[in-house]
Automatic annotation (TrEMBL):
It holds the Pfam family Trypsin. GO terms for biological process: proteolysis. It comes from the Eukaryota. This is Proproteinase E-like. GO terms for molecular function: serine-type endopeptidase activity. It comes from Lepidothrix coronata (blue-crowned manakin). GO terms for cellular component: extracellular space. Signal peptide: none annotated. InterPro entries: Peptidase_S1_Elastase_sf, Peptidase_S1_PA, Peptidase_S1_PA_chymotrypsin, Peptidase_S1A, Trypsin_dom, TRYPSIN_SER. PROSITE patterns: TRYPSIN_DOM, TRYPSIN_SER. Keywords: Disulfide bond, Hydrolase, Protease, Serine protease, Signal, Zymogen. Residues 1-193 form the Peptidase S1 domain.
């Protein structure tokens, strides 16, 4: 028997009904997980999925479309991006009711793959590292966006929060690791056109 899931868009404060929320069903057959994703191996990459909503979301001030970055684009070290989510605000801390955001600078592949950072076995070129000891993603942020502003002022979804260090959320030299959306644009386009 197939299950039905729900996506809530326009959410900000999970403890209050604000009037901007839209709850849209998703059939289990309309969840498209990358075929090379392995649930037991975060460092193997391919941590990306698409959901097909049963009906379109109504766009509003609170609900907008995410914009994809140019295919294959890689941001330079220190590029300012923003993570948002309802994840813990500190290691072992509480889950917030209100959507949180934090500026996370990109940590380039050269730094993130150094042995005293994440190392070359944990980080693939289909991933982005961002943040660090002061600010990072945390448990509960997985699946959320890393948005970065393009030169023309538009915001693009460059990353999908994938994993943080088992040492804790603000561990030194262990930035948050994201799936690099620009590495999967062919798969995204093909999956959308096939379904």
């Amino acid at each position: 028997k197939s299950r039905t899931y729900q996506v809530v868009v326009g959410e900000y404060d999970m403890s209050a009904e604000e009037g901007s929320e839209q709850t849209i069903p998703v059939n289990s057959d309309d969840i498209f997980v990358h075929p090379k994703w392995l649930s037991f191996c975060a460092a193997c990459g391919n941590d990306i999925a698409l959901l097909k909503l049963q009906r379109p979301a109504a766009l509003s001030a609170e609900v907008q479309l995410g914009r994809l970055p140019p295919a294959g684009s890689v941001l330079p070290d220190g590029y300012p991006c923003v993570i948002s989510g309802w994840g813990r605000t500190s290691t072992g801390g509480p889950l917030p009711d209100k959507l949180q955001q934090a500026e996370l600078p990109v940590v380039d592949h050269e730094h993130c793959t150094q042995l005293d950072w994440w190392g070359p076995l944990a980080i693939r070129d289909t991933m982005i590292c961002a943040g660090g000891a002061e600010k990072s993603g945390c448990n509960g942020d997985s699946g959320g966006p890393l948005n970065c502003q393009a030169e023309d002022g538009t915001w693009e979804v460059h990353g999908i929060a994938s994993f943080v260090s088992s040492l804790g959320c603000n561990a030194e030299k262990k930035p948050t690791v994201f799936t690099r959306v620009s590495a999967f644009e062919d798969w995204i386009a093909q999956t959308i056109s096939d379904n």
